[in-house]
Design a protein that fits this description.
six-stranded antiparallel sheet; 24% helix; 95 residues
């Protein structure tokens, strides 16, 4: 999925006026999970997952489906550059 950052303010999710939608699924890019696990180790990916929920200081983004998500981005080596890509996301709503 592609995301457009719409809120990158400092502070936790609730401080910025958002909350995870109850019963919404946390989505992890499985291919990226395996790649990062191989390249950076199990501890790195587990820390990324933990960081996602520790106050959720992640950007609020609009997905290409029009919904709002908190998104954990990670740096990866692309073909010609280092770039950020979405790794974990979960639907949020204003509260």
């Amino acid at each position: 999925m592609k995301f457009e950052i719409i809120n990158n303010e400092q502070g936790s999710l609730d401080y910025r006026g958002f909350a995870f939608i109850k019963n919404s699924d946390r989505i992890i890019d499985d291919d990226l999970f395996k790649k990062l696990q191989f390249e950076r180790g199990e501890l790195f990916v587990e820390n990324q997952i933990d960081e996602f929920y520790d106050g959720c200081f992640n950007p609020i983004c609009r997905g290409d489906d029009g919904k709002l998500y908190a998104v954990q981005f990670v740096y990866v080596n692309g073909e010609s550059e280092v770039k950020t890509v979405p790794f974990i996301w979960q639907e949020v709503e204003p509260c």
